[in-house]
Amino acid sequence: KRSIMEVAVLKEIIKETEKNWRFVFESPLYDKLDFIPGQLVQIHANVPGEDLPVVRNYSVASCPDGTNKFELIITYLTGGKMSEYLFDYIQVGDEILYKGPMGIFTLPEDLTKRDIIFVSTGSGVSPFRSMINFIYENKVPFKNIKLYFGTRLTTDILYKEEFEYLEKELKNFEYIPVLSREKDTGYKEGHVHEHYLKLIDESPNKPLVYFCGWNIMIDQGRQELKKRDFQMMKDIRVEIFG
């Protein structure tokens, strides 16, 4: 049924940061939306001035919680047809069409075997938010998970309080924002790669590394891990946007 078009109604817009807004949709044809944390939805929108529907994929940022709602966090891009539509046109109560949730960017069945490193930039943190909340809500046992979140400024950090709360609640989970354009904040500085690569180089065991974000970041990360004999799918999973 996931390959057919579904209808969702926009229930809420939460302005998380200036350029990253959270959009909460409800799927009114279902009492409960079942999906695997990390999966994405494909949004189809009739954008003013466009002859054909604009289609974009977005990772679901919420975890399956027994409701019929799902949340997306969208980054505003000047000239981005879908983001401009969502920021400038769509209103609470409006309908969109979507396919999914679908995809294979998901957690391994057993999280106790290997350390896991999540690497994200910007709204690429979405699938990791879904996964961590799912682990927390369902008390899923895991070895160690570190979430590296790369962004420019403190004001760009997404879901900050929530991740800090989860870090306190889950003793083997660490949340590590890395800021590329701001110093002396108490957070790590520079680019996200240098920090998790240092950890990998000091570790006797290969972790499983997940990347989600812009393709430039992911390409760079994959090249660095290839030098360290990491293999796609076996040691690296990726979800690319842009």
List descriptors:
242 residues, 32% strand, alpha/beta, six-stranded antiparallel β-sheet
How would you characterize this protein structure?
By secondary structure, the protein is α/β, with parallel strands linked by helices. Helix content is 22%, strand content 32%. It is built from five helices and twelve strands. It has helices at 81-88, 126-137, 160-169, 192-202, 215-227; strands at 6-14, 20-26, 40-45, 54-59, 69-75, 95-102, 116-121, 145-151, 173-179, 188-189, 208-214, 236-241. The strands form two sheets. Strands 4-3-6-1-2-5 form a six-stranded antiparallel sheet, with helices on one face. A six-stranded parallel sheet has the order 10-9-8-7-11-12, with helices on both faces. The longest helix has 13 residues, at 215-227. The protein is globular, with a radius of gyration of 18 Å. The relative contact order is 0.15. The mean pLDDT is 95.
Short description:
This protein is α/β, with parallel strands linked by helices and 242 residues long. It has five helices and twelve strands.
| Elements, N to C (H/E) | EEEEEHEEHEHEEHEHE
Helix content bin: 10-25%
Q: Regions with pLDDT < 50 over 5+ consecutive residues?
A: none
Main β-sheet: number of strands, strand sense, barrel status?
A: 6 strands, antiparallel
The secondary structure category is alpha/beta
What do the pLDDT scores average to? 95
Our estimate of the beta-strand percent is 25-35%
User: Span from first to last CA?
Assistant: 27 Å
Number of strands: 12
Give the neighbour order of strands across the main sheet.
4-3-6-1-2-5
Radius of gyration: 18 Å
Shape: globular
What is the tally of helical segments?
5
